[in-house]
Structure formats: structure tokens, C-alpha cells
Amino acid sequence: MQQQRVPTPVTGSSVLPAAPRAEGHRPPAGTGARPPSGTGPRPRRRPRLPGLAWLPLLLGLGLWGYALPRIGFRTMGEYGLLDRLPVAFFAALLVLTAGFLLALRRAGTAPWWPAAYCVGMLLALKAPPALLYDSVRYPWASKHDAVIDTLLANGELRPHAPLSGNMAAYEQWPGFFGLNAALVRSFGVDSAAAYLNWAPVVLGLLLMPVLVLLYRTFTEDWRLVWTGVWIYQLANWVGQDYLAPQGFAYLLHLTVLAVVLRHFVLPGSAGRLRDRTFLDPAAAAVPPPTSRRQRAVCVLVLVPLLVAINASHQLTPVMLCVSLSALLLTRRYRNFGLLAVACAVMLAWDLTMGRPLFMETLGTLRESLGELTRNSRAGYAGRLTGPGPELAGLANVLMVLAIAVPAAFAVLTRRRLVRSALPLLLVSAAPLPLFAVNDYGGEMLFRVYLFGLPGAAFFAAAALVPAARAARGGRAGSPRARTVRRRAAAVALPLSLVALAAGFLPSYYGKERMHYTPPAETALVTRSIDRAPEGSLVLAATGSFPKALHRYDRLEHWFFAEQELPENERMLADPARYLADGIPPGTRAYVILTRTQDVYTAGEGLLPPGGFAKLRDRLAASPLFTVVEEHPYGVVLEHRSPAR
């Protein structure tokens, strides 16, 4: 009796696999995977991607290279770089996006192509300032360079000195600066300014494998992994990846979480999450459990990273402890030992090296605790003014919605994926309660968004990338439903990625006029500060100008407009008398007002329209101050002390 042959089910043009694998995967030739003749129509062969994948990549980077010298950064207006980017730059981003979508079709068999496009897009988005600018991007980043210079010159910092200009935080958490001092010596450069503008690119490259490790913990679908990485890059407009302790500590923070999520699974805690038929088709099974001894060894391995985080930044250890606390809500990662070690390291540092600022911060909690509206505002004034900053602020809000809405949709519709990736969801939502604690100098909104972004990008990708075909016996919906989802994704995914790229540009470059400083202005500030005798007081409207803290260990600083707008309006009524009354008797004081301060105070809403010009004119006309040097990019005045 002849055995009846069961036909192999066919979905679209691909054979349904016996085990879950990325969509579009085809077994290699010669493995016996080709169906025998007579069993049905032979699946159509798709064109091999590797022969075509390099074309959009080279074309996109070629267009970008052509556009780069044509970016008019020296003539930026109200819209920053937005209206100074040539058409070829936008075309390059579109070509790279199209190439990424093409590479995504074979992500399961050739994941290096989506990786190459992610690197290409990172360079296209964040390398222009590093290649073009003849000065440090982000004027406030120059204070980090000043700390590194001080460390190199003196061989030590003063952690308990009551320094002004918000420098106590840097002095009491010096780990990042010690690392960069070593790098400056190793590279043989004059200062960290030589590589400062490359920090966003370097940190982006270092973050990429960490994100891949995080996402691969919860999904086997390479399309979902690389789409999550791509969305993260487009949504990372916050500007916290410059050469600063935050970016370095954030990298270590995600590294710790990646190790925990892969190597701290408790035995017997997976349950149905190891059952392939129960999981979402894209979900990965829970990692293998580890014994108590193995977890103890992992804790010892993580201790140096915990110390490095605590030695470099004040807020990141808090975020890490909050994230580890959130993981206790899952049975998989209910590990009190690691949380106890992380909290102990944080408190040990805060109560020793960081004690002065830590105690000062505790004293302010009574005022900020529960002030949700105040703590979630952006900046000192929380009100952007001018076409470019206002457009950037609107783009920021839309970008948050563009990530939050699809992420929420995935949480509601792909519940099996959410159940397996619940730890990632928890650690991404964990920072939200910090809005009730403190405003962190007007930056808590950006920090919460940054720490929640990895998980939000993953779930946003899950909403845009349809589930791969389910394992045999799994449930992924009817064939018609799967077809509808694939067709919807074929439209939604490219439109969403293009929209995110379009939103990134105003979010990241809309306020670029504040971030680029002409070298002549830097030279003016450097000359003025070098002339000031040791112990002098340097006054400026804000600390956001180049070389603001040059020689900070020998001078005092007062950034008098970094306060609420009503107080600044009272100051403008008689700025000369206001400043003179705040200068200690017998102290030599210099006022430095520059173009960058003008742009920053106007854009961030610190001063009313025309307020900076009024400030400059009234100080120059006052008998209490005399003009030392005047330049198209700024003016320097000296206070006429009655004692002299």
C-alpha cells in the first residue's frame, strides 16, 4: 500500500519552515531542501540581495559626501542647519533608508547588510559637525574640556572645593574626566577638543552592539532587531551623546542591563515562555537559567562597571537602581543581591566623594518633590522662542509621539511578544516616576526619554515589522490576516522611517545656531579670561558660550541670566546696578557678552525679545563698567570698583 504524501504548506512564495526563522530565509543549496518534483509549484526565487545591497549604500554615502562641503554652516540663520542643507543631503538619507529596507528582506541570512546601513546612517546624521566645524560643537561641552585640562595641568581635582559655575558635580564625579585625560596623553593631542566633536559617532558605534545584544535577548527575528536599532538612531535626537559623563555612563548602564537580562535568569522561572508554540513568532525563548554561584560571579564581574558609572555621573546610578528594582517585578529576574550591590556602591560614592553636592540636592527635594509640571519642563525657562527653536520644540514632541504611539500599539496587539519581552518594557518605563522627584536643572524630561528609548524603539519596531511565520503548531492568525499585516507593513514601515528621518533633522539641527561658535568668538573669550588676574569674577548671561570655564580653577563665575524670566526682566530694568550689587567688594570683575549668549538666551526664552541687546547697550553706557574690548562677536567690560 502506497503511503500518502502530505503536501508541504506554502505561504506566498516561501516554504513554511519547521522551526522559526527570519522571514525570507531559504536553506542553502545542496542541503536537500528543494521540494521534489511533483509536490507542487516550485517557489519563485528572489534575486540574491548581497549582489545588490552595496549599491544604495555606496550611492547614499556618495551623495552625502557630495553634499558635505556644500553645507553652509557658517551662514546659519533662524532655522539652524535646516535651510543650509543641500538637496543632495536629503537625497542621501532617502537612498540609505531605501537600501536599509532592501537589506532588511534578507536580514535573517545576511544581518551584516542592515548593520552596514545602520553605520552609514549614523555617519550621515551625526558626522557632519565633526568633519566640518572649526570649533567645538555645543559650547557648554567646552567646560568638560576645561576640567580635563585642569586635571592634566594639576594632576588632581578638588572634590570638596566650593566651586561656582555648577562645577562641583564634575569635581566630585571625576571618573569620566580621568579617562579622557588618559586618552589625551595616549593620543598625543593638545586637549580633548581634538576629538570632542566625534563623540556622538563613537558612542553611537559602541551602543550598536549593546542594543543588538539587548534586542536579541527577546527576539529571534533579525528584521525586528535591526529595525529597532535604526529607529533608536533616528529617535536619539536628545543631544546627550556629546563628550560628557552622561553619554559614557549611559553606555555602561545599557551594558549592565544587557548582561543582567541574559545571565541572571532564575531556575524554573520561564514556564510557558520556553514553549515555542506559546510565544509570538518573533519572540525568543527565555535565556538559559543560571545557578546562584554563576550569578554571584556575574555580580563580581559587573562591580567595576558599577563603580565606573558611579564615579562618572550623578543621575545614571539612580536610573540603574530604579531599572533593577523594576526587574524585581518579574519572576525571571528577582535578584535582590545585584540590586543591593548597585545601591551600596551608589550610596558609598554619594556619601564620600559626592557628599557635598549630594547633601545639597537632598535639601532641595522638599521643594521639587511632587512638582510634576515643573520637573518635566525643558530648560530653565521651558519656553523656546524664535522660528528654529520653536520648530525644534514642535519636532521633539512629534518625535516622542512617533515612537510612543507605535510602541503602545505593539504592546496592545502583540501580547505574546510583550510577555516574553516584559523585562525590557519594565526597565524602559521605570524612569518615569523620577518626574515626581526633581527637574535635574531642566533636563529630567530629556533624561527620562533617553533611558526609555531602547525599549520604546524595540516595541515601535514590533508594530511596524510583521511577525515572521509561526513555528509548526504556533498561532499567528489566519493566512488572510497575515497577508493584510504584511501589506500594511510594506506601506507603514517605509513611511514611518522616512518620517522619523525627517523629524530627526529639525530636532537635532534646528537649534544649531546655538551650537556652532565662530573661532573668532572663542579667541575673544580666551584672550579676555587669560588677562583676568587670579581670583577675579567672570560674569556672563549664561555659561553656554565657548571657553566659558577656561581657567575655572583660578577664577569665579556668575551666569546671572540662568534664572526665571520674571527675575531676568527685573534685572533688565537696571542691569548695571543689578550686577554691581552682586559683585563682592574689592573683587575684580569682568562681564563677557558674546553672540552665542545672545542666540542662546533668546532661543531658550531666558530673556525677552531684544533683551540681550538692551543688556549689552546699558552696561556699555553705564559709568559702573568700562569697555575693555569690543568685537563683532562680543564685548568685554570691566567693573569699576569704588575701591579703585
Automatic annotation (TrEMBL):
<feature type="transmembrane region" description="Helical">
    <location>
        <begin position="49"/>
        <end position="67"/>
    </location>
</feature>
<feature type="compositionally biased region" description="Low complexity">
    <location>
        <begin position="27"/>
        <end position="41"/>
    </location>
</feature>
<feature type="transmembrane region" description="Helical">
    <location>
        <begin position="448"/>
        <end position="467"/>
    </location>
</feature>
<feature type="transmembrane region" description="Helical">
    <location>
        <begin position="336"/>
        <end position="358"/>
    </location>
</feature>
<feature type="compositionally biased region" description="Polar residues">
    <location>
        <begin position="1"/>
        <end position="14"/>
    </location>
</feature>
<feature type="transmembrane region" description="Helical">
    <location>
        <begin position="417"/>
        <end position="436"/>
    </location>
</feature>
<keyword id="KW-0812">Transmembrane</keyword>
<feature type="transmembrane region" description="Helical">
    <location>
        <begin position="111"/>
        <end position="133"/>
    </location>
</feature>
<keyword id="KW-0472">Membrane</keyword>
<feature type="transmembrane region" description="Helical">
    <location>
        <begin position="391"/>
        <end position="412"/>
    </location>
</feature>
<feature type="transmembrane region" description="Helical">
    <location>
        <begin position="87"/>
        <end position="104"/>
    </location>
</feature>
<protein>
    <submittedName>
        <fullName>Uncharacterized protein</fullName>
    </submittedName>
</protein>
<feature type="region of interest" description="Disordered">
    <location>
        <begin position="1"/>
        <end position="47"/>
    </location>
</feature>
<keyword id="KW-1133">Transmembrane helix</keyword>
<feature type="transmembrane region" description="Helical">
    <location>
        <begin position="488"/>
        <end position="509"/>
    </location>
</feature>
<feature type="transmembrane region" description="Helical">
    <location>
        <begin position="247"/>
        <end position="265"/>
    </location>
</feature>
<feature type="transmembrane region" description="Helical">
    <location>
        <begin position="195"/>
        <end position="215"/>
    </location>
</feature>
